[in-house]
Specification:
three-stranded parallel sheet, 35% helix, disordered C terminus, 9 helices, alpha/beta, single chain
């Protein structure tokens, strides 16, 4: 009994005392919820460690329009139906002309995936045609171009190979975005595979989480992956998928950066460069403070000593 309680106490203690780190690589996958507009201010506060964000679209989010240290990265989410359409190119060029610091762009969100899972479902040849028309011209403006952000499945590798073949040398991507949903071992292995396939490109991790993991495992995954990203020089930017309340999370409540009441979880606070908050995410309608759970565990231990 005592051994079980001691191990339980350590499991609660270890994530809470994780080392506070900051990183200029960290950005935000911005997923606003109209029901909680007050949550928007969390990400662009004076204490935030985030330096950049994207919102799956070509235009910056109005909530961050006055941000000076929070760089927007436009994304061409899908391919337009009109094969003469240049609206994305025009939008980015207009932003640059207006003085915006557009240094990077992202393209084609999970084109090998379906809309049911958030993918853009774009054939590789159509993506290549669209890139040559709408993306490649931005090179002349000094913009660095992100390759299509395929899924972490084998279909992603196949799609990306077909894309570059269809480009016939006319798609000069500067970096490879990675999406990963799974444990850290799988993530590290996947990054290694991508690096081996595209050794001359830097890597961005633009979506990642361990879906459905419990709180302890989610926190361990977060800390281990963040430390890994910060240590590897060819990983130049990363954005954790969790900028929403736990009650609406589609990767499990324990992976979210906000509780159901909009308070920063430990993961959320760590990601912004802060210390553990003790607020536990849940799908319920109230917030639990982790300290009370720890107190119960330790009290039980002391009583049995």
């Amino acid at each position: 009994m005592r051994a079980t309680i001691i191990l339980g106490a350590l499991a609660v203690l270890s994530p809470a005392f994780s080392q506070i780190t900051t990183s200029p690589k960290r950005g935000l996958v911005y997923v606003p919820n109209a029901n909680y507009p007050q949550d928007n201010t969390i990400w662009d506060s004076s204490s935030s460690d985030l330096t950049w964000y994207y919102n799956y679209g070509p235009e910056p989010s109005p909530n961050f329009s006055n941000a000076t240290d929070f760089q927007f990265v436009p994304m061409l989410f899908s391919a337009p139906n009109d094969t003469t359409d240049t609206s994305f190119l025009t939008s980015v060029q207009s932003q640059i002309s207006a003085g915006a610091n557009v240094s990077y762009i992202l393209t084609f969100n999970e084109p090998d995936g379906t809309s049911a899972t958030g993918g853009s479902d774009v054939p590789s040849d159509l993506a290549a045609e669209t890139w040559i028309r709408e993306v490649e011209p931005l090179k002349s403006h000094g913009v660095k171009l992100g390759a299509p952000a395929v899924t972490g499945a084998q279909t992603g590798f196949t799609w990306l190979q077909q894309f570059f073949t269809a480009c016939a040398g006319n798609c000069s991507a500067d970096f490879i975005p990675i999406h990963w949903y799974g444990d850290f071992g799988g993530l590290a292995s996947h990054i290694g595979q991508v690096r081996a396939a595209y050794p001359n490109m830097s890597i961005w991790i633009t979506e990642y989480a361990d879906p459905g993991a419990n709180l302890t495992d989610s926190q361990s995954f977060f800390n281990e992956s963040s430390q890994y990203f910060d240590r590897i020089d060819y990983i130049t930017r990363y954005s954790y998928f969790g900028s929403f309340r736990s009650s609406v999370s589609n990767v499990g409540p324990d992976a979210a950066m906000l509780t159901q009441d909009g308070q920063l979880t430990d993961i959320g606070s760590w990601y912004l460069g802060g210390s553990a908050t003790g607020f536990v995410p849940s799908a319920a309608s109230h917030t639990t403070f982790a300290g009370s759970s720890l107190l119960v565990v330790l009290t039980a231990f002391w009583c049995l000593s």
